[in-house]
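User: Sequence recovery, please. Input:
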C-alpha cells in the first residue's frame, strides 16, 4: 500500500504543512484502530485516508482525517494534499468531490497545479465569557483585542492580537491552551505591510487534538476569511500562516462557502508495510 507525504499550501518542499496521504483500493475504510495507528506512526498534523466511491454516489471519494491522537471533522491541508496526489497519479482531473464528516467537499485542480477547496464557512460568535478570554490571554502571554468562538465543523477560538509582531513572537503555555477544551486556538493580526503580498497573519495551536502548533491550517481559514473579509470589505484575501514552516492560503468568501486555494509538493512516496 502506497503512502505519500505531501507539503500543502506551498510551492516548495519542506515548507507549508506536511500531510500523510493513503489512497485505499477498497470500497470501505479499514478499522478505526488501524487508521489511528497509522496516523500516530506518521506523526504529522493529519494523515488523510481516502477510498473511491461508486459512480452513483454523491461524491467521488470518501475521505477521513486523523491527527496522531484523534479523528477530526474538517481538515484543509490534508484535503489539498489528497487532491494533489489524485492529480499527480492521474486518478483525477478537474473537480473531485469528497464525502466527509463535514459533508461533501470539492477540490478543483487547476492546469497550473493550484488546487481550490470548497469548504463550509465557519460561523463566528463573539465570546461572551470574559473569564475564558482572560485565561487564554494568560496562556498566550499577550493582550487580546477581540475573541470569537467558531463552529460548527470546527471548534476553535479566534483571537485578534495587537499586531503581526505579537503573533510571530508568541510562545504560549500549551498545557493551559489544552485545558480550554477547544480543537484549536487561532491567533491573528492584520499584515504589518499591506504591500507584502498578504493581508493578515495567523498561527494555530491545537494541543487538545495532539498538535502543539499546526504549520498551515486550511480549516482555520474558513474562520479567518469571514472575519477579515468583514474588516477589510473584500471577499478575496491572502493569509500568511507564520509558523516556522510558513504557508500562503488564498481565500474567497462565497456566502456560506469559503474557497481556499494553494499548491502542494510531494516529498516522500513510499510503501506502507503494516
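Assistant: Recovered sequence (274 residues):
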Amino acid at each position: 500500500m502506497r503512502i505519500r507525504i505531501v507539503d500543502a499550501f506551498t510551492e516548495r518542499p519542506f515548507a507549508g504543512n506536511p500531510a500523510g496521504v493513503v489512497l485505499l483500493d477498497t470500497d470501505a475504510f479499514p478499522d478505526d484502530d488501524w487508521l489511528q495507528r497509522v496516523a500516530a506512526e506518521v506523526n504529522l498534523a493529519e494523515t488523510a485516508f481516502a477510498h473511491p466511491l461508486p459512480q452513483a454516489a454523491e461524491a467521488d471519494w470518501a475521505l477521513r482525517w486523523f491527527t496522531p491522537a484523534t479523528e477530526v471533522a474538517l481538515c484543509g491541508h490534508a484535503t489539498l494534499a489528497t487532491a494533489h496526489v489524485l492529480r499527480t497519479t492521474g486518478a483525477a482531473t478537474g473537480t473531485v468531490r469528497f464525502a466527509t464528516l463535514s459533508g461533501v467537499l470539492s477540490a478543483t485542480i487547476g492546469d497550473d497545479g493550484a488546487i481550490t477547496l470548497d469548504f463550509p464557512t465557519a460561523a463566528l460568535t463573539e465570546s461572551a465569557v470574559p473569564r475564558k478570554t482572560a485565561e487564554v490571554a494568560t496562556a498566550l502571554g499577550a493582550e487580546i483585542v477581540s475573541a470569537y468562538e467558531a463552529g460548527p465543523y470546527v471548534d476553535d477560538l479566534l483571537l485578534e492580537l495587537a499586531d503581526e509582531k505579537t503573533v510571530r513572537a508568541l510562545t504560549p503555555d500549551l498545557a493551559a491552551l489544552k485545558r480550554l477544551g477547544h480543537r484549536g486556538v487561532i491567533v491573528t493580526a492584520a499584515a504589518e505591510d499591506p504591500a507584502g503580498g498578504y493581508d493578515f497573519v495567523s498561527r494555530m495551536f491545537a494541543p487538545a487534538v495532539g498538535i502543539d502548533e499546526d504549520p498551515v491550517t486550511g480549516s482555520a481559514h474558513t474562520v479567518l476569511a469571514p472575519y477579515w473579509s468583514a474588516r477589510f470589505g473584500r471577499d478575496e484575501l491572502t493569509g500568511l500562516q507564520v509558523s516556522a514552516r510558513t504557508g500562503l492560503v488564498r481565500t474567497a468568501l462565497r456566502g456560506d462557502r469559503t474557497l481556499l486555494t494553494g499548491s502542494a509538493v510531494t516529498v516522500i512516496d513510499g510503501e506502507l508495510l503494516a
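The chain has two domains: 2-121+260-271, 123-250.
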